[in-house]
Please model this.
Amino acid sequence: MADFKAPLRDMRFSLKEVLNYTTHCSELGGFEEVGDQLLDAILDEAAKFVEQELAPINQSGDQQGCQWNDTVVTTPDGFKEAYAKYVDAGWAGLSADPEFGGQGLPPSMATLLSEMAGTANWSWAMYPGLSHGAHATITAHGSDEQKQQYLGKLTSGEWTGTMCLTESHCGTDLGMLRTRAEPNDDGSYALHGTKIFISAGEHDMTDNIVHIVLARLPDAPQGTRGISLFIVPKMIPDANGEAGERNGVSCGSIEHKMGIHGNATALLNFDGAKGWLIGPPNRGLNCMFTFMNAARLGTALQGLAHSEFGFQKSLDYARERLQMRSLSGKKSPDKAADPIIVHPDVRRMLLTQKALSEGGRLFVHSLAMDVDTTESDASVEAKGVADARLALLTPIAKAFLTETGFESANLGLQIFGGHGFIQEWGMEQNVRDCRISMLYEGTTGIQALDLLGRKVVGSQGGLLRPFLAEIQQFCAQHADNRHMANTVAALKTHCEEWEQITTDITMRAMSNADEVGAASVDYLMYSGYIVLAYFWARAQATALNALADETCTEPDFYQAKITTAQFYFEKLLPRTRSLVATMEAGADPLMALDADHFHF
Amino acid sequence: MADFKAPLRDMRFSLKEVLNYTTHCSELGGFEEVGDQLLDAILDEAAKFVEQELAPINQSGDQQGCQWNDTVVTTPDGFKEAYAKYVDAGWAGLSADPEFGGQGLPPSMATLLSEMAGTANWSWAMYPGLSHGAHATITAHGSDEQKQQYLGKLTSGEWTGTMCLTESHCGTDLGMLRTRAEPNDDGSYALHGTKIFISAGEHDMTDNIVHIVLARLPDAPQGTRGISLFIVPKMIPDANGEAGERNGVSCGSIEHKMGIHGNATALLNFDGAKGWLIGPPNRGLNCMFTFMNAARLGTALQGLAHSEFGFQKSLDYARERLQMRSLSGKKSPDKAADPIIVHPDVRRMLLTQKALSEGGRLFVHSLAMDVDTTESDASVEAKGVADARLALLTPIAKAFLTETGFESANLGLQIFGGHGFIQEWGMEQNVRDCRISMLYEGTTGIQALDLLGRKVVGSQGGLLRPFLAEIQQFCAQHADNRHMANTVAALKTHCEEWEQITTDITMRAMSNADEVGAASVDYLMYSGYIVLAYFWARAQATALNALADETCTEPDFYQAKITTAQFYFEKLLPRTRSLVATMEAGADPLMALDADHFHF
Model:
């Protein structure tokens, strides 16, 4: 079985050939230095790091898991050492502000690194990944003093960060949270409460952890309008800015989970822990929303990661495993049987994984570039466009790519037959690790309500229209290309239908608010298939262009893109047919049954 | 969280009200004694047994797993004791021949017991479940002496059995198997080879295990026509028929798996183990096919089991968990939030589980009754009808109910949000345990080839037509019932389409055999949705009938059936729309890509 390889060729196709990444960087203002050479160098180095340091400890990390012993968490063998190398090499600060020691590259660079690290070893990648929220919160809302205290250490990776939101009785419904913050005399607060499901909440990889904690001030209003944000370091920074005295926050236990065993999911007890208010009082949730899109994009990545990982492994297996003969005649007559890749249904499973992985990659990269724009010195107009695009597409990316990522991971397992169920091949771990992605950072149902309720209906189509126009513009550009005729026709039909369905649901929702909830997940998945169709259309157009060049040196690569695009349009996009039908059926079939009559 | 309850009310609805089980038994010949009273008594007693003895050791069995130590396997705490109670109570011989100590009830009775036991604790239920294959093989093909030696012990449950097919290099493609059987002087054979993935292959619950082993005689032809069957007991029966001398078969290890940790999946080494030929030489695979349908039905049950288990638990949770307010106005204003069952998308997930569980139950029960007929003294004609129905519907039941069972188990987990990923709630175990069902006893892809290639195309529609006629007859019977109008219309349209699509694929397959493989899984799932629609239509008709009776004492139960049927027709059956589109797209999109060009 071949070792994991970062999909460099495909990442370059996505970034350099389809999405014009380096042009994008030059237009951001301040990132003109990101040319092809720098991009290639970073991708190559990152690939080396994840292949050599992270992939080898993925399976052992799962089997060993994290160990908890009286508030202390020990990460699996090799995790700490790999993290030290990550910090030493400066990876942690790739996209961070040079003022605090960062390398000042666009945020998307960190996303590309996360993509590779997460594909090689998702559990490990969550430790640096979780720092992002703390870093972004302090950058956006911290006082100068707070920035000086924390951003340097978070940028270097010497300290990691967490986001402490969930309590046992509330996850989605944060308005119910009970952790309270009592003012101390020195301007700090004493936090009391218990948080659960804190990813990377305790570990042995750094000497400090910076928790960003949602809590209530004594006089706070009920509900979501009474939540404030606090910085609660595990060790209180001393006068030199180093980890000092131990704070009153401790890890009460870690969860026994289905997957991501290498990442510690902590229960944290705040027993009068010292915290410092960050941002205005009672505006904590609003402050958090400023980087919610980036955090959700980080989870969308997870779907892509497990899809790619399973695809690589199951493709290897399908080429090597000999079993049965092709129905259309022996393909390897010299062998005892044909490799299973000859069987149409095995190809269906491989191509589904391929189309979801490579299409998902374009989708994620494109959104990461929008994040660049929103956080850059680009024009107000350009930022507005990127903001609107992110608002619409982020919940789709998060839910659609994790749902289809889970499907893809399961197909990877399925190709192994009974062997897929056995630990040693790594495919069942890939499925278990993937399963969390549809739950955290807002479940699929929550993303769907965000998309349909808040973003689409809430904006009266204002967020959807520009994206439809973007697709229609693409269609217009390729209207005369006969090789794109089927693709363009399918995209146009779907855009019209998407608009019509949106209108229909919006109308129905005016008389019954449950129509939004009833259609939401179908609507999100429907939208996702169209978004992915658009990115596959762009890949197809790029590949056709490349092939038209007589000097093209990789015809097989580009032909495979075209073939996969065709597969996508003929075998995956038609899933919209069922979703349209179930959306049209409306809310009644869901709401008719009395809650007491579901089981007798 | 409520304890698991066997779904007795629904089982009775299925058996007594929809499928006329006791009439069926009286028509089989020899089973006239199975009236409502006996059926009720058995269901009640079985429910008590599985609720009190099996459900409580389901989660602990997962966490503890089986332990292997130098050929000895220890099952989880309580497994052995529960098995002893099962044997003492006579459950093992429920459907077995009274000549060997059985209770002589129809085979379907054992299936009903398996359904309940498997829902409570699938890992445990596999131990007695695996005995079925050995029992059936010896019953069908054993000599009188072999029957005398083994059937009594297998009937009482004092010994268990296994089926030893798979080797590391072949699972689906048994023609490649290498285990060999050399003749001894005494008429027995010495078996040499290694078998893997032997469920219940070694354990501490009984003092003997009867392995049925596929192996090659020295002069055997290559491929599947050179496979013979052997009885290889772990302990050779002594003169008194008790477990005697240790045979040369031993457990080399057990697999570390994604789920079903409570069941030992053994690697068995045959080092000159003594075996006795059963059935004619080189006809082993044919002998096995005689009860393949029953074995596959046993796995179809697993999809139903995990669907029902997840449904019960997630329904409880959805009624208790308070989170957010209904979009259409507060439903529990006195509480901090509404129970999540008010949210349309949570209801979608619950109703999907409900429709798949209860519809799947009807499907499985109906097939179990066909098995009764084939194994009874019914007329040749009646047996022929049942045989044809089983041939067509068994691969559908196996693959469709396990694929949708896995979906259902995942929806159960999803309703718990992040808590679903945590071991303590049992939902992630339910998903892990379920995952194997799409792999063993022939993967989904293999079932689909069996259905479309062997059964449908192979019989030139001869197996499909009678089942279509059965549905059409149902439609004709209910043509004038206005409450059934939508249902009947949808069934009729789908029957016509099913026939048309079958013709289309058959035509295409004449010029390209890969068209069968390309359409196969879509075709199977498409067929499955229609089959389930038919059973939901029958449930609806039965419920309408019951409600029309003025003395009806359970109007809520029957109304819930009608509402769920409507949900099925409006929200699940439309999945056929996408499957039709992808089947129509044919094989080309799957076969176009060169095997070397899937990844660069």
